[in-house]
Amino acid sequence: MAKHLALLSLAALSFCNLVLGFEPKPLQDFCVADTTSSARVNGLVCKNPTAVGAHDFSFIGLHIAGNTSNPFGSRVTPVTVAQLPGLNSLGISMARIDYAPWGINPPHTHPRASEILTVLEGSLLVGFVTSNPENRLITKVLQEGDVFVFPVGLIHFQRNVGYGNAVAIAALSSQNPGVITIANAVFGSNATIDSEVLTKAFQVDEKIVEQIQSKF
Q1: Which of 108, 98, 102 is nearest to 150 (CA)?
Q2: Residue 6, SS3 per DSSP
Q3: How many CB atoms lie within 10 A of CB 92?
Q4: Which of 91, 132, 145, 175 could in theory staple to 81 by disulfide, Cβ–Cβ 3.0 to 4.6 A?
Q5: Rounded-to-integer distance, Cα 67 and Cα 201, Å
Q6: Are 148 and 126 contacting, i.e. CB atoms less than 8 angstroms apart?
Q7: In sequence order, what are the beta bridge partners of 99?
Q8: pLDDT (tens digit, 0 to 9) for every residue of the chain, 216 residues total?
Q9: 160 pairs with which residues across the strands?
């Protein structure tokens, strides 16, 4: 437990490296999100400061392992402004990721944030792909205590390459980093992308595209 707490502290310190100006700096001490407001702004409306309390700045639950009983064998527990209103306007968030043996966090992107990942337990194969035209894969196997950064917007993934469970903590440079899981977006979009488009894009038979689409 003490070792995990030390690694969590290391992950928390990594937040300092993530506030890189992707979101505007706050103009007051804090701007706790008012989740009851119907106003539409770039971010969330501030709650009345006199109604703010410690509960607005705290989240309980990252010590609880996520349920990895799903096809991917992983579970992300996010702590964004949606779960922690005090993050509003601060430009940071985090997540816990649990992996079953050989589980994956499938290829995805965060359109609004860079990510720095710290392995707390187990071994993870991680990687990201650079943009066109190189599409270079940069990958590494991480051990407990290792850290890896995923640049904003680039497709990245993790895979547990150990026989036991793995746990990681991710820090992100946005209160609302967003996530686009590539397979879900391409084959499970609402409405469905025309199969002829995907057939040409992936250079496969239409039946293969339809088979994949049926899984989403």
Answers
A1: 108
A2: helix
A3: 21
A4: 175
A5: 35
A6: yes
A7: 74, 166
A8: 566 655 665 555 555 444 444 566 777 889 999 988 888 788 889 999 999 999 999 999 999 999 999 999 999 999 999 999 999 999 999 999 999 999 999 999 999 999 999 999 999 999 999 999 999 999 999 999 999 999 999 999 999 999 999 999 999 999 999 999 999 999 999 999 999 999 999 999 999 999 999 999
A9: 124
Given the structure tokens 């792909």, which residue do they identify? 129
DSSP per-residue codes, 11-28: HHHGGGGT-SSSSPPPSS
Structure tokens at 85: 């209103």
End-to-end CA distance of the chain: 39
> Which residue do the tokens 């290792």 mark?
146
Phi, psi angle pair for 9, to nearest 5°: -65, -40
| Token pair belonging to 41 | 């702004």
